[in-house]
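Weekly puzzle thread! Below is a chain. First person to post its structure in token form gets bragging rights.
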Amino acid sequence: MAWRLFRLGRWSFQHRKFVSLGWFLALCAILLGSLLMSGKTNDNFELSGIESTDAFELIEKRTPGASADGATARIVFEVPAGESLTDAPHKRTVGRALARLDGADVQAVVDPYTAGTLSADGRVGYATVTFTESPADLTEEDRDRLEDVRTAAEGRGQDVVIGGDALAPEAHSPVAELVGIGVAFLVLALTLGSLLAAGMPLLTALVGVGIGMFAVSALTMFVELSSLTGSLGTMLGLAVGIDYALFIMTRYQAEVRAGRPRDEAAGVAVGTAGSAVVFAGLTVIVALVGLSLAGIGFLTQMGLGGAFTVALSVFIALTLLPALLGFAGARVAPNRAPTGARPRPVRKRATARLWAEAVVRLKWPATVVGIAAAAVVSIPALSMQLSLPDDSTKPTGSDARVAYDLISDHFGPGANGPLVVVVDTRGTTSATAARAAVALATERIDSLAAGSGSGVAGVIPAVSDDTPESQQALAQQLEMSGIATMTVIPTTGPAQQETKELVADIRDAVSDLEAASGARALVTGQTAVGIDISTELRNVFPVYLTVVVGLAVLLLIAVFRSIWVPVKAALGFLLSVGVSLGATVAVFQWGWFNELVGIDGSTPVLFILPILLTGILFGLAMDYEVFLVTRMREAHVRGTPAVRAIVDGFAHSGRVVAAAAVIMVGVFAGFVLTDDIILKTIGFALAIGVLADAFLVRMLIVPAVMAIVGERIWWMPKAMSRAVPSFDIEGEQLARRLEEQAASGSTRPGVRVPANAG
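Winning reply:
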């Protein structure tokens, strides 16, 4: 493999104009496709086959004109002190303002007077608007009509704020990307010693991110994708693209300074560091593609989109970077050896060597301290609570946040996340039995609400009273659709643990309804959806972890030709995940130092974070394992004793791995500055995870454990050794072939390469 990559890298260097033009044309073609074919994205978290979404689908199927995923808006009206929305002028104003929604794609408008959503003093009330289209499909005209409602009411002395998912999504700010690029450029300049050299990894990474983003954008014409698909691809593409190019770049500089011709140095860099890049990229790709095992559409999209961008980053680092090096010549790596001189050993990094020697000497204390520190920081993860994001996490002062807070303050936090109980009576034997089933479900809910500490603030039944007119209306509804709905208002907010417990209590209360009446009751609502999806993720997580970690361990066994190195790598990764989740819980859920990440309250952890973080961080952790341990194996294969090989390998790669980790942390931390709570949470968790994995696990615990195990760390059964293919990632066979061909006067049969090519 190293020899093939050597030839690819040297060919790209020698045919730099062709390679550079090819990538430029690819970028332009994808950009054109994106401009011509881009469609809409959505932020819906949906999963078929769970109770909460089954209830939405039932409503949509049985009720003509109803939409299970229709956008909603909550329009909150507020009048000055001493006045009331029940005053005739204000009542007329609200009616006229809501009439502005006529002609829009509106499914239903429930005003404050019909719904009874007026505060005790009458100063605040809110209307609920349900659209027939999903948030992604709402037209600008629909959103303009919402603004017309605001304008009409404010012109009559009322204050109006609008919440819900019908609002136009905020434009993505490039601040996160710019922060990451700025940090990366500074670290690259210090590491590579040249502004031109620092710009090359950035350029290759941006090309990869550009192609990946534009490809995802073009794909939205054919498939409705999550808006997070492109954002995650950008985040990962920037981070790994810069890091992969950095590893190849530093190896190229070392080879040139050791006296190799430039095209041969490019080939050797791609053949050795590039081999590590390929396998590091494969571990990330395996972890991301493995997200599809969850069977959840938006996770699959995010995983495949990220994997595509990572694969692009690998291929670009192997081809475009050598081409750019061909254009740069001596400006990025002056040759300090006389022409024709034998390559001399690369200069060791003093700081990295001193650190490695200290860790090896104090291997037992380093191992104990490292594991203990990781365990302590991981403790908050034991109390982790998961939830869907809601408007309580929006930036302070935004319309959505102000509307959420007003409703919470005047109607209780549970009004922002009502639960809906859908009673399906199609299984009953008669119309009378259907009405009896609805009455029985209502009785069960009322009994639950009457209990002490039930967590129920109010119940809106399927019928408002027992009058003949109401009963007749219910009978007609059941005859037409076979469903009746009642609403339960919790006393706590949608993201709070007490609300999740209430969902379980309601489901328990109506669990025997089918056996008793033939009807079934389904509980839905934002909190119920979050609970159900989280349960599905929790169920599939062990399978996901087993498959992904198992495949990666097999891959690393082939790379390192060792049993214990991959096992040690996987166990170290668990420490990194624990630290990342623990820190995320402490900051976001417990509220420690949360002002530093731009949030002004506590919130449960994003429900997809554990599985998403596990997948991404596992791939990135294996990156650092490959880059760091490859040089150790390279030294060991060439005859250096195991413990000394740890020090020698660390001396070569420790500084570069540290620089790569700082770059990746900078890229991820940049996304903490965004207002999007999803990107903020993912960026924070990944930044902490990479920081812990690179500096605590890979640079402290890994060399210490390897020193404890000694020569046995490279043990592999002979039968397995014969069965596992050799990929020559350490470049031993490549070096031998180059020496043989150098002795014959060429680096490939029949072709003589100038001593100072490029």
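Puzzle host: Confirmed. Bonus trivia for everyone else. The chain is about 65% helix and 10% strand.
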